[in-house]
Each structure stands twice: as C-alpha cells, then as structure tokens.
Design a protein that fits this description.
Shape of chain B: elongated
Largest interface: A-B, 53 and 57 residues
Order of helices and strands of chain A: HHHEEEEEEEEHEEEEEEEHEEEEEEEHE
CATH superfamily of the largest domain in chain B: Winged helix-like DNA-binding domain superfamily/Winged helix DNA-binding domain
Structural class of chain A: alpha+beta
Largest sheet of chain A: 8 strands, antiparallel, barrel
Number of helices of chain A: 6
Order of helices and strands of chain B: HHHHHHHH
Oligomer: heterodimer
Structural class of chain B: mainly alpha
Strand content of chain A: 25-35%
Shape of chain A: globular
Radius of gyration of chain A: 25 Å
Chain lengths: ~425, ~180
C-alpha cells in the first residue's frame, strides 16, 4: 500500500524525469502573433461586447497568509493564561470565540494614514481567517493581530507576534455591528493598548465582494451611499492611485459595482450582474462612466482622433456628424451639478464597421486613458458628455443588453445619476 | 521578473515583451505539458496565454505581479486546451502489464511505473492536475497556488488531497495482478 507521501515523491520524480525540448519555435510563434496583435488599451463597453481580462492587482497578497495565520494561532496558544483582562463593552458567552463567518471578510473603507507606519493611505481591512491586517492598495499590510470576539458585539484584537506596529500582548476591544445585509461593518472606538490600531480599524467598512478575483470592485451593493476608491476623473494619465470619494452616489436594491478603475467605473443590474467578470460576452444592463473620452479614429484600432476636441460640446458635435451613427438629441440633464449633453446613439444603416472579438462594431470613444467603446448594429445607448471643469470631461453611458430596454433602464438609473457627486482632489 | 521590462511592454514596447516571452516560455511549456500531457496542446496553451497577456498588459496594475498573472492566464489556457483533449482524445486506457506488482518508490525504476502514473494522472481533471503540477513541479506553497489560480487556499488543499488520494488508489489498484481485459 502506498502512502500520500509516496505519491508526492513519485510525482516529483516523474515530473522532473520528463524531458523538455526546445521552445524556440513556440517563442517565434508567440512573437509573430504579438507583432500582428494590438494591445487592448480599451474596454469595449456596449452590450454583447467581449471585455478583455481585467487584471487589477488582487489585494493583499499574502504570500504568507497561511504561515502567519498558523503563527498567530501558535502565538495565541502560547499566550493562553497570560492574557490580561481587558474591559469589553459587554460580556457574554461569545467572549473568546471566533469571529462570526459574516465578519471574516475583506473590506474597503475610507483611507487613513497611520502615523509612523507609512505615508501612504491604508484603504482595506482584512479579517479573513480571524486575522486582522490593514492594507494599502498594493500589498503593504500593517497591524497584524489575532481577532476574536470579546463579546457578541465586540471584537478583540491581540498582537501576538513581534515586529509589528504594536507590542506582543497588546490588546484592543472594539464594539462592532453589521448592516442587515451583512455587507457593511462598523467598528466603533474602543479601548486598546496600542493606540495606532484604533486609527487603523475604527470606521465603516464595506465588504469587497468582486466577482473578478483580480478586481477591487465591491460586487453586490446593499442600498445606500457609496464612494469610488480608484476612479478619478481628475487623475493623472497612467497613474494608479487610490482616490476615495472622487465619485459618490446612492444606490437602490439590486445593483452591482463591477469595476472601479482609475479610468472607468461601472454599475450593473439585472441578469448576470452579480456574476460579471471579465471577459463577458452577454454583458448585463449597466451604467458606465469613463474619464477623458476622445473621439475614436475608427477601424477598431482603439486610437483617438486627435483632430476632434475633447470638450463635451466638441465630442457631441463630432458624434452628431458621424456618418455611421444615428444620433438623437435628448433633453439635457444635470449630473453632479454640471450640465450633461445627452444623446441616444445607434448604428446607422450602411455604417462602416470593423471587427472586434469577432463582432462587427462602429467605434465611438477611444480614450487615451485606456478604454474604448463602440456599438454593434443592434445596440442602442444613451450617451452623456459632461464637462466637470474647463479641462476635465466625463462620459456616461446607459447601456442595456437589449436595445429595446433602453428607456426602462434609463428610468431606473435616473435616481442614481441624480445622486452622483464628483469631488476634485 | 524585471518590472521595468513589464512597464515598457505595457507601453507597447514589443522588444521588451519579446524579452519577457523568451524568459518564461520554456517554463510555461513545461508546466502546461505536465498539466495537459500533450506537447502540442501545451504549446498552444502557452501561445494563447502569452498573446493574451500581451493584449491585456496595459491593464495590469502592478508590474511586479506579471509572472503570477501570466501563470494564471496559462492555467486558464490549459483549461481551454484541456477541453479539446477531452473532446478529441481516443478512449485509451493503459493496460497493466504482467510484471510483478512492485514499485520503485524512490524513483522511476520501471516503465510500468511511468505508464501507471501517466494513466492515473490523466484520469484527473485539468483543475486537479494544475494544482498537482504547480505544487509538486514548481514547488509552490499552497497559498501561492491559490493566488495563481484565484481560488481559496482551502480549495487548493482539497484538490490536492483529492488528486493525491485518487492517484494512490489508482496506482495501488493497477499494482494488483489482474487479467488483461479488452477495452471498448
């Protein structure tokens, strides 16, 4: 009878014994295809478009998550009997127990600077596996602590390892509450031997439930107020930084935040919204915002037409005169306190199309910021152009999966759009 | 991996990307060949992954994570190529030979061991094979495998445990002296 260790050993020997031949012809084939392939600086928004793989950094990381979890567990075990009693908001049978599963999640929230730790913002709270960490956007973590219940309504954090921002044995106790939908966690001020931990954890946190593992989006949203984390109409091209609250809005039941990127932000609803990941083919009904739009040069190259101005009026004028689009002016609306030009756009008969992802489209927007946007002949969208200030323009698209649903979707998103606010840095 | 090269490639520098491709292709082909058990499919998966990586490179937020991200694309490409394997592979099963039911567990002492292992390994799903190869061939710890595959560590652990158990059972069964049988 073999053992699992035998099998592992045999597998390792087997894998290493297999010869590997030359790969020069593979490299040649790859580079040949690369030479003939443009990079996708664009995301094709409309319905029935194929989205490129969205490769945002997955937080945190944790190359050492498992090891640290075990280490903390070991530290806790070692500290049994040495723990000092700490005041808790209330004492009950839950004290000492594991955090509820609904709390052991990854959250994002209002950025905070931890003095003496880093001059960059911490934006996420990680309670997965019953271990506390606060995260910056790109992998830096702090405040590593064991997390447990101090009471049914209070969390206990204990530093059990040296080399962190707090001293081993430092304990903090914080009242907490979850929203009815268990997607918002509020940690209130408590007591802590380590003051900086309070700076890191107190506040409202939102469960990050992005269907795409690499994406920082929030996923399904409880009704309420939300703020973007990365989207920034005033951002610097090519620079990815957190800009919490550049966009804020109110959302009703049934919506999903599927993208929060420097250059665009999406809110989806209806069938498929909760499962949306890149790439999608039958993309759900959605509301999409993109910063700094440019008129597309056409030909599916994802290149902007530099001869067209970038103000809302200039973009609208270009679109109205575009021979491949049928454009109908709609009454202007106010978005974030600014006037928006509103156009219903569809592809004209006899339009010149190009192919993207095996689908014929007409390019509309090809932003230098990194996204593009086009319509297929069966699409119909409501497009808005908004000058946020003299140099910053925003586009917003109401894009139903089925063209016939445009009016219904527009009515549904109207309160969301009306609630949007944009904040300059 | 050189982040500067990745950043240059993100900006459309094909020469920089060629350098990246040259650095990773041999390892990618080796990994995918061990997952897919087919050299042609492995080369196709590698090509698909690295062309997809080129196309989507501008969207990669953290250049330092290029290799991990590319590995994830490679595994996805293996999943896609694996479907072709299931569709087209003939219904073959290696028959146990009449040799004594012994194994050289210290190495690959006999062809029969290799054949039995090949047969048993092929019976695993691509998802299970990927975990086994990433862990036992690349020597990646399970949390790193989870990160590459985009699944929880627990899922990786259970896949590895399941795969190992299936392999052990299959190898033990194959080791029993049995009669040759006709296969459909």
């Amino acid at each position: 009878m073999s053992t699992e260790r035998d099998v592992a050993s045999l597998l390792r020997s087997w894998f290493r014994s297999e010869p590997d031949g030359s790969v020069d012809h593979v490299i040649d084939a790859i580079l040949g295809e690369v030479d003939a392939t443009n990079q996708r600086r664009s995301t094709w928004w409309p319905a029935r478009r194929s989205f490129p793989v969205n490769t945002m950094i997955k937080f945190g990381i944790a190359a050492t998550v498992l090891a640290m979890t075990l280490a903390i567990g070991y530290g806790l075990w070692q500290n049994i009997g040495n723990q000092q009693p700490v005041p808790a908001p209330s004492q009950d049978d839950a004290a000492g127990g594991a955090l509820p599963v609904a709390v052991q999640r990854f959250y994002v929230g209002e950025p905070r600077i931890l003095d003496g730790v880093s001059d960059k913002e911490f934006v996420a709270l990680d309670l997965t596996s019953g271990v506390l960490r606060v995260h910056q956007a790109f992998g830096i973590t702090a405040l590593l602590s064991a997390a447990s219940l101090a009471a049914s309504d209070a969390i206990r954090f204990e530093t059990v390892l040296g080399g962190t921002e707090c001293d081993p044995g430092d304990v903090g106790t914080y009242p907490y509450r979850l929203s009815p939908g268990e997607r918002r966690l509020v940690i209130e001020a408590g007591t802590d031997d380590c003051a900086i931990r309070s700076d890191g954890v107190v506040g409202e946190w939102i469960f990050m439930d992005c269907a795409s593992a690499d994406n920082w989006c929030l996923g399904a949203l409880e009704p309420g107020s939300y703020a973007s984390l990365f989207f920034d109409p005033w951002g610097t091209r090519g620079e990815v930084v957190t800009r919490h609250g550049a966009l804020t809005y109110e959302i009703p039941e049934g919506w999903v935040n599927a993208d929060d990127r420097t250059d665009f932000y999406s809110l989806l609803t209806g069938e498929g919204a909760a499962d949306y990941t890149d790439p999608c083919i039958e993309c759900p009904d959605g509301l999409w915002l993109g910063r700094a739009p440019n008129a597309a040069a056409g030909g599916c190259a994802g290149e902007p037409d530099a001869s067209v101005g970038t103000s809302a009026a200039e973009l609208a004028a270009w679109l109205r005169s575009h021979p491949s689009f049928d454009v109908v002016d709609r009454p202007p609306v106010t978005v974030g306190g600014r006037a928006a030009i509103v156009l219903d756009v569809s592809v004209a008969d006899g339009a010149t199309t190009c192919e993207v992802e095996r689908e014929r489209i007409v390019e509309l927007v090809a932003s230098q910021e990194g996204y593009s946007w086009g319509l297929s002949p069966s699409d119909r969208q409501r497009v808005m152009f908004i000058d946020l200030d003299e140099s910053v323009t925003l586009t917003l698209s109401i894009d139903p999966l089925e063209a016939a649903d445009l009016e219904a979707l527009a009515a549904e998103v109207a309160p969301i759009i009306a609630s949007m606010r944009f904040t300059e840095p | 991996m050189d982040s500067e090269l990745v950043i240059r490639a993100q900006r459309g520098d094909r020469e920089a990307y060629a350098t990246l491709v040259t650095r990773v292709t041999a390892r990618f082909v080796a990994v995918s060949r061990r997952i897919l058990r087919d050299a042609d499919l492995a080369e196709d998966a590698t090509q698909q992954a690295l062309v997809t990586a080129w196309q989507n490179l501008p969207k990669l937020r953290d250049p330092a994570r290029f290799e991990a991200w590319a590995y994830r694309l490679l595994v996805r490409a293996c999943y896609a190529e694996g479907k072709k394997e299931r569709r087209w592979a003939p219904n073959l099963r290696l028959l146990p030979a009449d040799e004594p039911a012994t194994k050289d567990w210290d190495g690959l002492g006999s062809v029969i061991d290799r054949d039995q292992l090949e047969s048993a390994f092929r019976r695993l799903s691509i998802e299970h094979r990927a975990v086994v190869v990433l862990h036992h061939y690349l020597d990646l710890p399970l949390d790193r495998v989870a990160e590459l595959l985009g699944v929880p560590v627990g899922t990786v652990y259970s896949r590895l445990h399941y795969a190992t158990r299936r392999l052990r059972v299959a190898l033990d069964a194959d080791a029993e002296p049995i009669q040759r049988e006709a296969m459909p």
